């Protein structure tokens, strides 16, 4: 099938380009052993956001949606000395698994996992130094609100990565009204219409199927 071929290609690229070390492999294993859902970014997507954060020279990263900390580890490893990553997670059990994996990766001093609904945790970040990079990967229904929060917590030039904006094509299927899909549409339309945001979306295929991500840059 097409999906098997996409996965085979991901495996081929990863075998040459993406070396997962013990801590990343262990983070994936810990997520699985704990019975957390299999919805982390793929290995190459992890490296992709890691490289984006490096290219941005990000010193402060905010992640919304931690799960078992797999993407968290990729992102935290992009930080320079003295950098910091805050990640927001609703499920205490997910946060516990993530904290253990982050600690095994030697990043406990860099990463802070805040437990609770992100919309309740976000106001607590006002007044801190601005974040340079945002990775939004939680409940898609709230994506427009999370985007609004990046304008509050970022700075001109900050980058926002919004994951899962294709969802197997559902985003343009007029018969689909699921909250994750309507939230995604609203987020894309907000990026397109907001005077302080500029953005683009790309479709992807691979081990995670047919999906994609959007990038938004804070203008002013
Ligand atoms: N970024 C992770 C990775 O790639 O390794 C995957 C995150 S997973 C797709 C989404 C996570 O968001 C889940 O762990 C879920 O519990 C969490 N979540 C869902 N609703 C949330 C909310 N309102 N606030 C914070 N986290 C939430």
Automatic annotation (TrEMBL):
Q: Name one GO molecular function term.
A: S-adenosylmethionine-dependent methyltransferase activity
Give the species.
Answer: Tessaracoccus rhinocerotis
The superkingdom of the source organism is Bacteria
The top of its lineage is:
Bacteria, Bacillati, Actinomycetota, Actinomycetes, Propionibacteriales
The protein's UniProt keywords, in alphabetical order, are:
Methyltransferase, S-adenosyl-L-methionine, Transferase
Q: Does the keyword Coiled coil apply?
A: no
BP GO terms, sorted = methylation
**Per its record, how is this protein called by name?**
O-methyltransferase
């Amino acid at each position: 099938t097409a999906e098997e071929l996409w996965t085979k290609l991901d495996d081929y690229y990863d075998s040459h380009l993406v070396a997962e070390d013990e801590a990343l492999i262990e983070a994936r294993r810990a997520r699985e052993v704990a019975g957390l859902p299999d919805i982390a970014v793929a290995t190459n997507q992890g490296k992709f956001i890691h490289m984006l954060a490096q290219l941005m020279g990000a010193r402060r990263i905010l992640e919304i949606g931690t799960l078992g900390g797999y993407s968290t580890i990729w992102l935290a490893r992009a930080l320079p000395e003295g950098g910091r990553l805050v990640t927001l997670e609703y499920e205490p059990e997910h946060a516990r698994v993530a904290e253990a994996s982050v600690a095994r990766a030697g990043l406990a001093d860099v990463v802070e996992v805040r437990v609770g609904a992100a919309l309740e945790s976000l106001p607590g970040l006002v007044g801190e130094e601005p974040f340079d990079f945002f990775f939004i990967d939680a409940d898609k229904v709230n994506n427009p609100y999370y985007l609004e929060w990046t304008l509050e917590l970022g700075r001109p030039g900050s980058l926002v990565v919004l994951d899962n904006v294709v969802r197997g094509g559902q985003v343009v299927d007029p018969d689909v009204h699921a909250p994750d899909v309507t939230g995604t549409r609203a987020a894309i339309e907000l990026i397109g219409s907001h005077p302080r945001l500029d953005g683009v979306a790309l479709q992807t295929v691979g081990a995670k199927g047919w999906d994609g991500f959007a990038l938004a840059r804070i203008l002013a």
